[in-house]
Amino acid sequence: MNIGGRKISSGEPCFVIAEMSGNHNQSFDRAVEIIKAVADAGADAVKLQTYTADTMTIDSDKPWFRVGEGDKPDSWKGKTLYELYKIAYTPWDWQPKLKKIAEELGLIFFSTPFDASAVDFLEGMDVPCYKVASFEVVDIPLLKKIARTGKPVILSSGPSSLEDIELALTTLRENGARDIVLLHCISAYPAKPENMRLQTIEDLRKRFNVEVGLSDHSMGIEIPIAARVLGACAIEKHVTLKRAEGGVDSDFSLEPQELKELVRTIRNVEKAMGEPSYDSWSPQELEEKKSRRSLFAVENIKKGEIFTERNIRSIRPGAGIHPKFYEEVLGKKAKQNIERGTPLSRDLVE
Q1: Is 170 among the domain residues?
Q2: Deepest in the core among 139, 177, 287, 332, taking most CB within 10 A?
Q3: CA–CA separation, 212 vs 82, rounded Å?
Q4: Domain boundary, last residue among 240, 273, 306
């Protein structure tokens, strides 16, 4: 997959996505501050959500329209879905302005649409790709609409069955989506480490033959770092300026310095991962290689004298010939006088 000139795959540097969601607290200036902090942290992309309360649900106080009690931030509890989305949405008239600011800072900017009108709006902004939220995996008409743009799609799995994921991927592919990244996602807010099941990343990759990343709602940075080690090609984390200042998703969001540390650690982990190799030595390793054992004269040896267990040994450092030749050298004669402490070489042995 290629997004805005950035190649996304497990063999490339991890694509780090900062999700703003509603953490702007309905302040345009705060949204701009978040984008600047994301750029300063070294993330690759900033993502918004494009919906209104009316495109997401209806204004109803019936029991099934109320936010459940489960693993939800306290700020969500007691509200109807409509009330939550009224305070969480990002005003649409902000989004072209935020896109311009983000791109000027070198960030890739895109969004999650939640209905057909949002896709049309984002197409007018010429976003480079689309994100499908976990709970929209089953919205087949929306998936068709997104796929028909022909743009890359990032799809969160969330509480989806294998059948749900397979149907979503098939729908996207059959309707024009050529490039798809699947994100393993635990839809709990915040998600607990014991529930993350990161081995699912590799299982999803094998089952569906797609690149796989992680949309992470856990606290801290340990989980996404582990996911990168396990081959995640993309990491998505919510960000806020200060958790203490509140925000609909602030409870499970990273602050700017934490995001910066996440990016820094992922980049170092990627350097450390490298490729399997047993003969490509770094300068430091080559220097340390000299500390290995090798064959040395441990007594003065006269020309013509036989090499024995007494006058040669395998000792440190590694300046002489390899210890594997020890038995081969034993019983042979010295070509010349050899002073004690001299590393053995082929030209000293007859």
Answers
A1: yes
A2: 177
A3: 32
A4: 273
Phi, psi at residue 245, to the nearest 5°?
Answer: -85, 0
The residue range of the domain holding 119 is 10-51+89-273
Helix (H) or strand (E) holding 255: none
- Beta pairing class for 234-238 and 211-216: parallel
H/E run at residue 77: none
Q: Is the pTM of the predicted complex or chain greater than 0.70?
A: yes
CA distance 202 to 228: 11
70: its two tokens: 């489960």
Q: How many other CB atoms sit within 10 Å of the CB of residue 316?
A: 11
Pick the last residue of a domain from 273, 302, 336: 273
> Does residue 187 sit in the same domain as residue 216?
yes
Q: Give the 3-state secondary structure of residue 259.
A: helix
180/191 Cα distance (integer angstroms): 25
Residue by residue, pLDDT tens for the chain (350 residues) are 999 999 999 999 999 999 999 999 999 999 999 999 999 999 999 999 999 999 999 999 999 899 876 656 666 777 899 999 999 999 999 999 999 999 999 999 999 999 999 999 999 999 999 999 999 999 999 999 999 999 999 999 999 999 999 999 999 999 999 999 999 999 888 999 999 999 999 999 999 999 999 999 999 999 999 999 999 999 999 999 999 988 788 889 999 999 999 999 999 999 998 888 777 666 776 666 778 999 999 999 999 999 999 999 999 999 999 999 999 999 999 999 999 999 999 999 99
In DSSP terms, 67 is beta-bridged to: none
Q: Does 266 share its domain with 289? A: no
72 is a domain residue: no
Judgement on whether residues 114 and 152 belong to the same structural domain of the protein: yes
Amino acid identity for residue 52 in this structure: T
Cα 24 from Cα 87, distance rounded (Å): 10
205 phi-psi bin (left φ>0, alpha ψ -120 to 50, beta other): alpha
Q: Where residue 104 sits, what CATH number does that domain have?
A: 3.20.20.70
Torsion of CA 127, 91, 139, 116, to 10 degrees: -60
